[in-house]
Amino acid sequence: MLNALEPNVTFDALLVCFFPLAILLVGYRLCAPLTWTDLYDTLCLRSLKSPSYTGFSLETAYQSYTQYSRLSNREQFQRQASYNGLGRAHKRLGNKIGYPAKLDNLKIATDLNATITDGIADLASEQFNLKCVPGNGGDLGRVRESLKHFIRDWSEEGAHERQRIFQPILDVLRRIEHTQRMGQKVLVPGSGLGRLAWEISQLGFDTTANELSFFMNLAFRFLLSPETTPGKNEHVLRPYAHWFSHQRSNDALFRAVPFPDAVPRITPNFHLSEIDFLSLPVPSVDQPNNTPFWLKSNGLDRRLLGYDYIVTLFFIDTSLNVFATMEQIYNLLRPGGTWINLGPLLWTSGGPAKLELSLDEVLLAAEELGFIFQDDDEITARKTIECEYTSDVNAMMRWTYKTEFWVATKSK
């Protein structure tokens, strides 16, 4: 009896094996184009597994940069499929105004941007000995945000936006005599692609750029490397090509923006710290040769510990626990050290953030921790500054923040 059933069992087994392939063939006709990676994932049932990389980690960022082309092309195919679904009369009208050419230009723009994302991924692979893992998805949104930060931080087009938010901070620091700047330490947490921190180091301060997200860190390393970025305006991006909304023209949509307008490098007074801000240790200032013996060895005076300035730009509202962030700012400053802040209060709502404070509550909490707000003159006084963030200067819309600027000192 068992022998009589064997042919049916074998046939059923073959059906099970070919069933995923049949689904893929149907999907190919109805959905986005499939790559060999997609085929491999489905046949191995990899798509049923949860991704192994999460958040802003090195692995997640690297994988996302490697997948930029594939994910963008999949999105491009969906746009094309939606257009193909138009009725004959509407498609004829779309053809007359050149919409198919617009979709073709999107593919060209994606390929151009991919030269940057591939370069970032290749450098990361070399520096961290990383390998692309087939099938692990990527975060296309965060990659695109990082590309827009190249324009905000390191292009002539982004200069106006930078001027608006950098100037109040730099005005405070420029008050320090040039001869005193080299001996003073400045920390810039949440430094992104590092332009503000680099600008501060150019003033002569010993500056540390601190950033947790490797979406930003890998992109910044791409700028810092003489091999990948040997000179000014070495690269070109079409940063807004994927967002068809609020565009005045296709020329504006697909415009190419060169970067960087300045070439950053690691120097003796410009450092990177690619770790969580809350885990940063208190730095020690090098002891001068004339330091009295009783301040040497293990008994360093507290005045020799800590940062002289901590600059937070669009940072504190990224905190899941803003009390912990402000407490860390206080602990990392030397007594009498200065906290300079500029930014909004766009909390991570919906549960992740333990606290979502109003401005009044933030200021009260800072005073409770021991900060003293300065209002001696126009430069240091609290003020509201309207600004934008990674905006498209040619778009038909604006997202304006009413950011709050303040200067506060740590009580001695």
Overview features:
alpha/beta, 2 domains, Rossmann fold, disordered N terminus, 8-stranded mixed beta sheet, 412 residues, two-stranded antiparallel ribbon
Structure write-up:
The protein has helices at 2-30, 36-43, 58-66, 68-84, 88-96, 99-128, 140-154, 159-173, 178-181, 195-202, 214-224, 250-253, 322-332, 359-369, and strands at 185-189, 206-210, 235-237, 257-259, 270-273, 307-313, 333-343, 371-373, 383-387, 401-410. It is globular and about 75 Å long. The protein has two domains: 13-128, no CATH class; 142-410, Rossmann fold, CATH 3.40.50. Helices cover 44% and strands 14% of the residues. It starts with a helix and ends with a strand. The chain contains 14 helices and ten strands. Strands 1, 2, 5, 6, 7, 8, 9 and 10 form an eight-stranded mixed sheet that branches. It is of the alpha/beta class.
Helix content: 40-55%
**CATH architecture type of the largest domain:** 3-Layer(aba) Sandwich
The level 1 CATH classification of the largest domain is Alpha Beta
Total count of strands:
10
What integer is the average pLDDT?
A: 87
The total number of structural domains is 2
The DSSP helix count reads 14
Radius of gyration: 26 Å
Report the principal-axis shape.
globular
Structural class: alpha/beta
The string of secondary-structure elements, in order, is HHHHHHHHHEHEHEHEEEHEHEEE
- What about the largest sheet? 8 strands, mixed
CATH superfamily of the largest domain: Vaccinia Virus protein VP39
Relative strand content: 5-15%
Q: Are there runs of 5+ residues with pLDDT below 50, and where? A: 1-7, 24-53, 287-300
Straight-line distance between termini: 91 Å
CATH topology of the largest domain: Rossmann fold
